[in-house]
Design brief:
The protein is of the alpha/beta class and 154 residues long. It has five helices and five strands; from the N terminus they run E-H-E-H-E-H-E-H-E-H.
Length: 154
């Protein structure tokens, strides 16, 4: 996939097995044709904001959904979420935190930073695949996001 392709989902996940299950579940459900997998928080932000090796990517083409792991190398999911919410280009992009954490403080902190959903990863493959399919169905087909570039009411 070229870096100027439109992306349905930005998957930010450092665990290769979880990333593979997530991508497979979304494709098997025919919910997302274009998924970009970022392996850490720094890569995710560079992709979103067209920096580093993604400098030629059109930063105005934001994903329809960001699936974000909380525990990431280089820059954790909370910091990625903070940067996403701080930038006008991505501020309204739906973000779902997907993590193995069940800590209530992680849930609270994520919502305080503006996450749209928080999902604890199930341990079993089939259960995890079902959760991913459900997330994709809701956020890509059911949910109505704001139109990019639309003016806010004054």
């Amino acid at each position: 996939m070229g870096t100027n392709d439109e992306i349905d989902i930005l998957l930010v996940e450092d665990n290769a097995d979880d990333a593979e299950v997530t991508q497979r579940a979304l494709r098997r459900s025919h919910l997302a044709n274009r998924i970009y997998w970022a392996r850490d928080g720094v890569e995710a932000l560079q992709f979103l904001f067209a920096e580093g090796r993604f400098h030629d990517r059109d930063a105005t083409r934001t994903p329809r959904l960001i699936l974000l792991d909380l525990k990431l190398p280089k820059l954790d999911g909370a910091e990625v979420l903070r940067a996403v919410r701080a930038d006008p280009r991505t501020r309204l992009t739906p973000v779902v935190m997907m993590t193995s954490s069940t800590q209530e403080q992680d849930v609270i902190r994520s919502y305080e930073l503006g996450v749209n959903g928080f999902v604890s990863k199930p341990v079993g493959f089939e259960e995890f695949a079902k959760v991913i399919s459900g997330l994709g169905f809701y956020w890509l087909l059911v949910n109505r996001p704001p139109v990019p570039g639309a003016k806010e009411p004054s």
